[in-house]
Each structure stands twice: as structure tokens, then as C-alpha cells.
Amino acid sequence: MIKTVKKYISRHLFPPQVAEREVVAAYDLWAENYDSQPGNLMLDLDKMLFSKLMVGVDIRDKVVADIGCGTGRHWPGIFKNEPASLAGFDVSPGMLQKLKEKFPAAETYTITDNSFSGISDHNFDVLVSTLTVAHIENLEEALEAWCRITKDEGDIIITDFHPDILAFGGKRTFKHGNKQIAVRNFVHTVNSIKEILLRNGFKAVNEIERKIDESVKHYYTDQNAVLVYEKFKGFPVIYGIHFRRP
């Protein structure tokens, strides 16, 4: 009984600290099991939002870029729509290696800065970026470059953790061995993203967000994290926007 009480106190009054890692180091570690995460709330919601947003984009015979492509989670769905080409960009060599194992002929680039200086202007018809924006510190510089490499009548689709939940202490975490690792995030408001894209001639043609509510409570229950659910209940957890430059 004493052991049980000590364990309870340790778990609930002195929870283990979550180690925060820089983006590249974190995703190089996460790459090992990134594709084996059943019951991951954010990945499931992201898949749903991305599918809905892509309904409004014709990518057949188009040149497509996936920025923050990771292991290529969305690539099977993108390839079904028969793009002319698909290029993947990521800061993590570990994630790109996993992508290459699944798609050996993939065209991939390791991102080393925000400027995309090796990519010519107006190169892509469609640019997609999922669960990536909050990892970028200088977002204006990055989004300006994304707009530059997108064609004049191009489309940009962005999804990510909602800034409201990040500002309230939400974290992007994963397990590595016996440790819980958090990936470093920066809070960028949805309006600030819209303003940058608007300055570059884009309009938001579709916008979706999901909140933490009863429909997703089972994700937290399965992880014994009902207290986390109660803390963030009602918060928007993910957003997605489809921008088009008319």
C-alpha cells in the first residue's frame, strides 16, 4: 500500500519533466516510430482536414511541393490524384530517410534555411505544408519564400496545431525509450499567417478548425490523460486553410 501511495504521489504531484528538443534533433529521434502511432489524435485530425481541403484543389498533372513532408504521410493520397511531380522538403534527414524507404524515387530536399534559395521562382502549382508552421521561428521569412516558389495562380494548403492551444501550454510530444520528448514550437496566430499570404496576393478560400470536445475524448481516455482533456476541452486544437492566388 505504501508503494502504491508513493507511486500515486510521484505521478500526480510531481509529474516527470518533458524534455524539449530543437526541431531537427527531435524529428530525427521521432523518425524511428513516426509511422507507427495508432490512436494519435493530431495525425488523425490532420488527415481528415487535409483530405477536406484537397477536395478544392486539382493536382492532376501539377507540380506539387510538400514542405515539412516528414515520412510522406500524405503522399499515397496525393499520388492517387496523379500529379506531374511531387517534391518533399524537410529539416530532418531522419524523416527524409524514412520517406525514401517508402518512395525510393522521391525527389527530396533538406531544408537548411527559410529562403529556399536553390528553388526558382514560380516553380510549383501547389504547395502543401502540414503540422509544420509552428516549428518555424521566422515565419514571415519562410512564408514569403513559399509564396515566391509558388506559381502566380497557385494554391497553398496549410494545417497545424492551433496557436491558441500552444499559447495555453499545449505541446507536441512523443515517446523515445522511457522519455517523453517535446518538440520546440513557436506561437503564430492564424491572422498573422493570413496577413502574410494576403500581402503576396493569396486569398483564403476554405478554412477549417477542430476543437477538443466529446468526439475526441476517447483519445485521451486511451492514454490515461483525462486530466489533459479537461484542461484543454473547448480549445481549438488544429486548423487548416486553403489559400489561392487568383
Automatic annotation (TrEMBL):
<dbReference type="GO" id="GO:0032259">
    <property type="term" value="P:methylation"/>
</dbReference>
<dbReference type="Pfam" id="PF08241">
    <property type="entry name" value="Methyltransf_11"/>
</dbReference>
<dbReference type="InterPro" id="IPR013216">
    <property type="entry name" value="Methyltransf_11"/>
</dbReference>
<dbReference type="InterPro" id="IPR050508">
    <property type="entry name" value="Methyltransf_Superfamily"/>
</dbReference>
<protein>
    <submittedName>
        <fullName>Ubiquinone/menaquinone biosynthesis C-methylase UbiE</fullName>
    </submittedName>
</protein>
<keyword id="KW-0830">Ubiquinone</keyword>
<dbReference type="InterPro" id="IPR029063">
    <property type="entry name" value="SAM-dependent_MTases_sf"/>
</dbReference>
<dbReference type="GO" id="GO:0008757">
    <property type="term" value="F:S-adenosylmethionine-dependent methyltransferase activity"/>
</dbReference>
<feature type="domain" description="Methyltransferase type 11">
    <location>
        <begin position="66"/>
        <end position="158"/>
    </location>
</feature>
